[in-house]
Each structure stands twice: as structure tokens, then as C-alpha cells.
Design goal:
Elements: H1 4-20, H2 26-44, H3 49-56, H4 60-72, E1 76-78, E2 93-95, E3 101-107, E4 111-118, E5 123-130, H5 136-151, E6 162-169, H6 177-180, H7 184-192, H8 195-203, E7 207-211, H9 212-223, E8 232-237, E9 241-247, E10 250-252, E11 266-268, E12 274-276, H10 283-292, H11 299-302, H12 311-335, E13 340-345, H13 349-363, E14 375-378, H14 385-399
Parallel strand pairs: 3-6, 6-7, 8-13, 13-14
Antiparallel strand pairs: 1-2, 3-4, 4-5, 8-9, 9-10, 11-12
């Protein structure tokens, strides 16, 4: 009987060999294989040349040339030699944190964040501004002011290693005026402004735009630490609830880039009437309940580390949100055979755990006949998933194989 480790090695080897086989011509083969090596090291941690050769089916000589080139480019770094086997000790290679840097811009409904992320996915620095509602001019002014200070946090020798900017933002902001509480005329400015081109001119580098909840899901896919099945649905609870979908190990964005935008999903409300999930499971709903109870809600947007809602208000929102999410998961599970559902958001870690527990309880109270119930668990990135996911977009485009598809907002 094979061990679990043997099964994992076999699965990894099959995946690596399949990826290696996709290099279609000699001119693109080296670049493809370099991406392959970086993808495997990112997925599995430090790997020796022999590990890469076994996983991919590439010759030892080819792997040696690739990994030497990646080390010379500063993208891989050597670990301590591993002794104890016959022959020469193996030397594991891991991602070099300073190998490349990426900017992640999160344009939210209540705040904007610009983050500098290194090659391993660690956030080096962040600048943030809170506002009542987003406008193109406010965002561009913020980036113009924050970008030089953020870049200056790197030593001069590393600044040319910033490889691109990704933007995570809600699509069609002008359609959410009733929820944002902003003047329609100011939101309509998003219809005609080419935010991608304007940001690229300010930053002096390529810029790619992705839906914010999709980007958060991408962060889980690229940087997440938990076990990820090939098919999972992801919920991000921010000012408004959003989502992302991974199918066959790939981020599925859909025709317009807004796939798995779970906010409009119809679910039963507390009164039994059908409502949109966005009106039940969003933090804006919690904020409204706090305001109605005479409890200041501004702290919800200032920091995700602590909530100051009363237990009565918080438990009511948790219960309603969990029931709505459970109904949405049931609907999704009837269409897709999901391996897991992940729940994350702009919230304290203990509140994420509490909400997830509420969702699990609510889901298993539903009629699950004919449903292969997915595993429901917490996400692993946390409050900064949208910013980190934005930075993951140029990282994936430059250095990874099929870690996610990207679509520019129209």
C-alpha cells in the first residue's frame, strides 16, 4: 500500500510533467520552463534540482541550467545542503524575497490602499486613505502622493525590481450608488475614465485591473497556506460581500471578469422574503445596524483588527449573514461540485472564525439531499487579501504558469 507521501509525489510529478509538456516551441521553451520551476517552488516550498527533475520529467542538466539562471537573476536562493543520502548532498532552492516586487492597489468603497509586496508574497509597506466614497480623482491623487514614499522604502538598488502594478476594484461602481451613498454624478465618472491608462502614466509601469473579490480569491490561490482543492468558491466579506471561483485549479473570471460576483445572489432574508446576499452579509449592513443602535460604526473601516459592536447587534448580523451565506453555498453546490468553500474578509481573525462556524451550522440545517456538501472553512489571507491579490496579478503574469486569468475592467 502506497503512503500518502508517495501519492503526493506521484500527483505532483504528473502535474509538473503536464505543465512541462505545454512548452510548444524552442524559442518559448526556456521561458516556459523557468515559469514552471518558479510555479513549483511557490506551490511546494524549497526544492532541490533532483526534486524538480522528478516532478517535471526534465533532464537533470536542463533543470540545472534553468535553476542556475534563476539564481543569477536573483529569483531563487540556495538553502543549506541536505545530507544523509547517497551521493552529493542536495541543495534546496527557494524563492528570493528581493527577486521582484509588485504594487497592489485596492480601490474600495470606503478606503484605498497601495501596498508593496515582495516575491514571496510578504507586504513590505502599505499606505492607506479612508474616504466616504471613491472617485477617480481622489484615487489618482492618492497614488501620486503615496507611490514615491512607498518606493523609497526600498534600497535604491532594488527599486528597478518593481515589476508592475495590479489594481483590485469593484467593477461598475456607478451601479452601486444606492449602497455607497455617493452622488450619482461623481460615480458616473468611473464610466468614462480609463483608470488603467492614467495609473500606468503615474506609476511608469504596466497596470492591470481585476475585480476586487476575484483578486482576493487570487491571493488565496497564489499565496494561501491551507489545502486548496481544485474547485472552490471564495467569499470575501468587505463593505459589500463579494466572491471568486476556482475551477480545475484556475481562477475563473468569466466573460466580463465578474464571475462569482456573489452579491446579487437571491437568498432568504430574516423575514423569509428573498433578498440579495449583498443586503444581508455585507459589513455595510452591520454598520447600519450599529448606527441604528447608537453605536459608532466608523471603526469598522479604520482597522480590521478590532470590532466594537455590542454583542446583541453583532450576533444578529452574524446569524443573518450566516443564513444568507449558507443559502448561497447550497445554490452554488447544486450547480458546481465544489471541494470547498472559503470565507474571509475585512474582520478580526476571531470574528472570521466565528462567522465561519455560524455558516457551517446554518448550512447543515438545510436540506442537503442530492448535494455533495463542500468543506466550509476559513480563508488564510485575511483582511489584506484584496491588496495582496492585486499584487499577485502582475506576479502571475510575469513569473507563473496558469495561476489565474486576468481581465481588464471595461
Amino acid at each position: 500500500m502506497r503512503s500518502a507521501e508517495d501519492s503526493l509525489d506521484r500527483s505532483v510529478a504528473e502535474t509538473g510533467a503536464a505543465l512541462a509538456a505545454r512548452g510548444s516551441n524552442q524559442s518559448g521553451m526556456r521561458a516556459h520552463n523557468e515559469r514552471l520551476v518558479l510555479t513549483l517552488v511557490r506551490q511546494h516550498g524549497a526544492l532541490a534540482k533532483s526534486d524538480i527533475a522528478r516532478m517535471t520529467g526534465l533532464s537533470a542538466q536542463t533543470v540545472s541550467v534553468i535553476m542556475r539562471a534563476l539564481e543569477q537573476d536573483g529569483l531563487l536562493t540556495k538553502g543549506e545542503p541536505q545530507r544523509g543520502r547517497i551521493g552529493q548532498p542536495s541543495v534546496p532552492m527557494s524563492l528570493a524575497a528581493d527577486g521582484a516586487f509588485f504594487l497592489g492597489l485596492k480601490i474600495g468603497r470606503r478606503s484605498v490602499d497601495l501596498s508593496l509586496v515582495d516575491f514571496t508574497g510578504a507586504m513590505r509597506a502599505t499606505r492607506r486613505q479612508v474616504y466616504r466614497y471613491p472617485t477617480p480623482d481622489a484615487v489618482l491623487a492618492f497614488v501620486s502622493d503615496a507611490l514615491p514614499a512607498l518606493t523609497a522604502t526600498l534600497p535604491p538598488a532594488l527599486r528597478d525590481r518593481i515589476a508592475g502594478m495590479g489594481v483590485a476594484m469593484p467593477f461598475q461602481l456607478w451601479n452601486w450608488v444606492q449602497y455607497i451613498g455617493a452622488p450619482q454624478a461623481e460615480m458616473d465618472a468611473w464610466r468614462t475614465r480609463d483608470i488603467q491608462t492614467e495609473l500606468s502614466a503615474i506609476a511608469g509601469m504596466p497596470v492591470t485591473v481585476q475585480n476586487d473579490a476575484t483578486a482576493a480569491c487570487g491571493a488565496e490561490l497564489v499565496f494561501g497556506t491551507g489545502e486548496k482543492p481544485k474547485d472552490f468558491l471564495y467569499f470575501y466579506c468587505g463593505t459589500f460581500i463579494g466572491g471568486g471561483l476556482v475551477l480545475n485549479g484556475q481562477l475563473f473570471t468569466g466573460r466580463t471578469g465578474n464571475a462569482a460576483g456573489v452579491g446579487p445572489m437571491p437568498v432568504p432574508g430574516p423575514d423569509g422574503q428573498m433578498r440579495r446576499l449583498i443586503s444581508i452579509a455585507s459589513l455595510a449592513t452591520l454598520a447600519d445596524a450599529m448606527d441604528a443602535a447608537g453605536e459608532p460604526s466608523d471603526g469598522l473601516w479604520e482597522t480590521p483588527t478590532r470590532w466594537q459592536a455590542s454583542e446583541a447587534v453583532l450576533e444578529r448580523w452574524m446569524t443573518d449573514a450566516a443564513n444568507g451565506l449558507a443559502a448561497a453555498i447550497l445554490s452554488a453546490s447544486s450547480l458546481l461540485e465544489l471541494g470547498a468553500v472559503l470565507i474571509d474578509g475585512w474582520m478580526p481573525v476571531e470574528m472570521r472564525a466565528r462567522l465561519t462556524a455560524h455558516v457551517i451550522e446554518a448550512f447543515h440545517k438545510l436540506d442537503l439531499a442530492g448535494i455533495d456538501a463542500p468543506l466550509i472553512r476559513e480563508g488564510t489571507i485575511g483582511a489584506e487579501a484584496r491588496s495582496l491579490g492585486a499584487a499577485a496579478v502582475p506576479l502571475a503574469q510575469r513569473f507563473l504558469l496558469e495561476q489565474g486569468s486576468v481581465l481588464t475592467a471595461g
